[in-house]
Each structure stands twice: as C-alpha cells, then as structure tokens.
Design brief:
binds iron/sulfur cluster; two-stranded antiparallel ribbon; binds cobalamin; single chain; alpha+beta
C-alpha cells in the first residue's frame, strides 16, 4: 500500500500537465521524493518550542477537519520536489533579483500548482478509505508575524521530522537533492512505515553549521539578510514579497500578489542541488 501510494504521488506531480509553465513550456519540478513520519513521533511536540506555541501537532490538524478524538494513529506524508534545472540555472546568473523563470515558478508553480496537487492527493487518499488533511489548504493555516516570522504548520519541520534533511545557515532546508526544493505535507490516519532520521543535528547538512566552511549564501543575498549568525527574516520578507517583487512578477507575466520570490541564496551555492557535506553528484 505504501509503495503504491508513493508511486501515485510521484506520478501525479511529475507527469501532471500543469507541471509546466503555460508560456515557457518549461517543467517546474523534477520527480519528487516522498518521506514518511509517524504522526505520534514526540518530535512534533518539540515544535511548539522550536517553531511557535501555536504550531500544531498532526493530531490537532487532523481533528480540525474530522472532529475531536477522531485521530488515534497515522502518518505525515512529506513531498520534496526539486526545482527543475533550467529554473535553477536561470537564477544562478542573477545577482539583484530573481530570474523571470524563478518568478513564474513562484506564482504558478508554487502556489497554484501545489494547491491543486494537494487537493487531488488528499482526494486520492480518501478514495483509499482513509482520512487526510493538507494543513496548507486549511483555513486555520496562518503565517504568524511578530518581531519575526513563523507559522502554525512549518513544512520544513515536517520534512525534518520525516528524515528528509536538515536546516542551513540561510534557513534553507537541505536534502540529498539540495535546497532548491518545494515541500508539501499531508496528515493521514493511514499508518505507513516511517522513515528514519539519520542526521546527528538539525543543521548537519550545512557546510557552515557542521564544519565552519562555506558561507556562500551570505554573499549571494542582495540585501544582506544572511550573516554568520543566520537569517534576518524581516529583511528577507521586505525584499522577497515587497512592492518591487510584485511589480517584477507582473512585468514578466507572473502573479503580482504572490511576488517573484528570490531564492538567490538557494542557487549558485554548494547546497543548491545536493547535500554539500557529501562528495556526490556532479
Ligand atoms: C513564513 C515563510 C517565509 C518567511 C520566513 C521564513 C522562515 N525562515 O521562517 C520569508 C518571507 C522570509 C520566506 C522567504 C523565503 N521562502 Co518561505 N516560507 C514561509 C512559510 C510560509 C512558513 C515558514 C515557517 O513556518 N517557519 C517557521 C520557522 C520557525 O522556521 P525557521 O526559522 O526556518 O526554523 C529554524 C528553527 O526551527 C531552528 N531550530 C532551532 N533549534 C532547532 C531544533 C530542531 C530539532 C529543529 C528541527 C530546528 C531548530 O532551525 C531553523 C533554521 O534556522 C513556509 C511554508 C510553510 N508552511 O512551512 C515557506 C517556505 C519556508 N519558504 C520557502 C521558500 C522557497 C522561500 C524563498 C526562497 C522565497 C521564494 N519562494 O523565492 C525565501 C527563502 C528564505 C530563506 N533564506 O529561507 C520554502 C523553503 C524551501 C527550503 N529549501 O527551505 C517553504 C518551505 C515553502 C514550500 N512549501 O516549499 N518564507
Ligand atoms: S550556501 Fe553553504 S553556508 Fe549557506 S546554507 Fe548552503 S551549505 Fe550552508
Ligand atoms: S531569499 Fe533572497 S532576500 Fe531572502 S535571504 Fe535568500 S537571497 Fe536574501
């Protein structure tokens, strides 16, 4: 059952006719990797400290839809989709703003494409006779803005729980296929064998955090939002989703309200498309 479901999700995302931008004809995402966490893993409780007291555990998310005491056991399914090479390559050449291709991916490939895929995968799991909830689609999902930014469902923390990788100096989540990825997750009451977290710390895949090397993302950021102490989210926010970003998205045929994103710290860096602490890949 697990293998069939994983194959369905991979095929559904990779081969979907909308996994291509209508104007460029270019694919957004390579075939995704799927990771599973046990929904009862105690690590989810720790995210109330690490992310926010409002951060939900899988049971809470499930019961928002199905009602109190409906969740006994289950899984969190995490999908990691590597951004396709042409989009990554285009962003590598940029120094001041995201590339046109990145901006198009941000609106159509990220927001629109993934919201539709999540709905369809949730429907598929229902068809198998199980409950399923995609927290991002819930009207209870929210980005929490205080003096910093967080949310009540962090996809990167779900990916960490499922053993998909670790965080980097830039805050980017680094998997075996790098940091140029999109992450989505689904909570289900289907019990699937969980993947094992192998990393020794939550920053093991970053060269700077684990070995004191690299720091390339510091120089890549056009607004100095990254330094040796980490990532200034408010500086990043202003640049990534500010007025100029919206204007640029509209100019290149993207979606104004989602902005153009940026991701310069995720391209032309050693962690772009591989785990930089391992000497594999090209
Ligand atoms: C709010 C938000 C933002 C905010 C704040 C980002 C942030 N760091 O939190 C802003 C506007 C700045 C932003 C910018 C971008 N974003 Co954004 N954003 C989100 C969103 C909606 C929520 C993030 C969240 O909940 N953060 C929670 C906080 C607490 O996470 P954190 O600070 O990174 O976590 C740190 C602590 O937990 C700490 N930590 C301390 N102790 C411990 C102990 C343990 C055990 C653990 C696990 C961790 C830990 O380590 C972490 C790293 O420092 C997510 C989607 C989602 N629902 O998750 C996308 C998301 C994070 N964004 C994404 C992307 C791609 C971007 C941009 C590239 C924009 C773009 N699309 O072009 C930039 C990149 C910025 C960067 N350098 O990371 C991707 C990330 C992909 C990746 N490889 O990491 C996500 C996951 C969207 C997606 N569905 O794929 N984003
Ligand atoms: S560019 Fe280097 S320092 Fe920055 S997150 Fe990637 S591996 Fe870590
Ligand atoms: S997304 Fe852009 S602005 Fe934000 S930290 Fe990365 S390079 Fe800097």
């Amino acid at each position: 059952m697990k293998e069939q479901l994983i194959q369905h999700i991979k095929d559904h995302i990779y081969n979907h006719s909308e996994n291509v931008h209508p104007s460029t004809g270019k694919r957004y995402y390579d075939e995704p990797d799927i990771f599973i966490a046990d929904a009862s893993d105690p690590i989810f409780d720790t995210f109330k400290d690490v992310v926010s007291p409002e951060h939900m555990v899988p049971k809470e998310v499930f019961e928002l839809t199905y009602g109190a005491n409906t969740f006994k056991s289950g899984s969190v399914i995490v999908t990691i989709s590597p951004i396709e090479e042409d989009i990554r390559t285009s962003n590598r050449t940029c120094k001041d703003t995201a590339s046109k291709e990145w901006a198009l991916n941000r609106g159509h490939g990220d927001e629109m494409f993934y919201k539709n895929r999540l709905s369809e995968i949730v429907g598929h799991i229902h068809g198998m006779g199980y409950g399923a909830v995609a927290p991002w689609l819930s009207d209870k999902f929210r980005v929490i803005r205080t003096n910093t930014l967080t949310s009540n469902w962090s996809e990167r923390h779900m990916a960490y729980a499922a053993g998909a990788g670790t965080f980097g100096l830039s805050d980017g989540f680094i998997t075996e296929k790098g940091t140029c990825i999109r992450i989505i997750s689904i909570v289900t009451d289907m019990v699937l064998e969980a993947d094992i977290r192998k990393e020794q710390s939550h920053t093991a895949n970053c060269l700077f955090m684990s070995k004191g090397l690299c720091g390339v993302c510091i120089k890549r950021c056009p607004v100095n939002a990254i330094d040796k102490n980490g990532h200034d989210k408010m500086k990043c926010l202003t640049f990534v989703y500010g007025e100029e970003s919206k204007k640029f998205a509209a100019e290149v045929g993207g979606i104004e309200k989602t902005g153009s994103g940026c991701g310069l710290c995720q391209t032309k860096v050693p962690c772009e498309f591989r785990n930089p602490t391992k000497r594999t890949g090209s």
